[in-house]
Amino acid sequence: MSRVKLKRFADNAQRADVVEPGKPTYQQLGGRWHEAFFRNPNPITLEVGCGKGEYTVGLAARYPARNFLGLDIKGDRIWRGSTRAEALGLLNVGFIRTRAHELLTHFAPQELHEIWITFPDPRPRDRDIKRRLTAPRFLDLYQQLLRPGGLVHLKTDNEDLFDFTLATVQRRPGATILAHTKDLYATPELLPHAEDIQTTFERKYRTLGVPIKYLQFRLG
Hints:
Blueprint: H1 3-14, E1 18-19, H2 33-38, E2 44-48, H3 54-62, E3 67-72, H4 75-88, E4 93-97, E5 112-118, H5 136-145, E6 146-156, H6 159-170, E7 176-181, H7 191-194, H8 200-207, E8 213-218
Parallel strand pairs: 1-4, 2-3, 2-5, 3-4, 5-6
Antiparallel strand pairs: 6-8, 7-8
Helix pairs in contact: 1-4, 3-4
């Protein structure tokens, strides 16, 4: 492991906005995020697979009266998001280093108000369908953790993942599609819903001329 990564992992270990294995807060905040972490009652939004935290931090800067959490398994990526949040002086943002299928060990039922899934790995192989972050087993988790009426947003460059997610949600009892498009920037009326914050992936694919897909839905 490089010295740079070792230094970043050491930084994460000292940062109060990073929740990770080995810290006393790890898997101990379910039902207590408002009082024990954010120390306010404001709504909580989770970004699943936050990468470098660009979307999580961007949302936190835009909405200071709400709380935001980014989840990713890569400590090096989380360090980038935490560093950016610190530079901006944001107190309404945090990061969790864990895997998405462990969500129930970190949150209580109905503790979240909103979930974002931004440019996830599309898992194109058939044997990996269940690992897609919009597969039924993950939608089951999100539904447990979201408050009634809570929103889920997907942004992706991958048409197959978009089609899979749209069909999966449409088949789901009680779920409601609120907005969807295969070309977000050609559908300006949806941009306010999708937020115009852009990740590295989004900028890359827009430069290449790949349309950005967007889906917003409720799970019932």
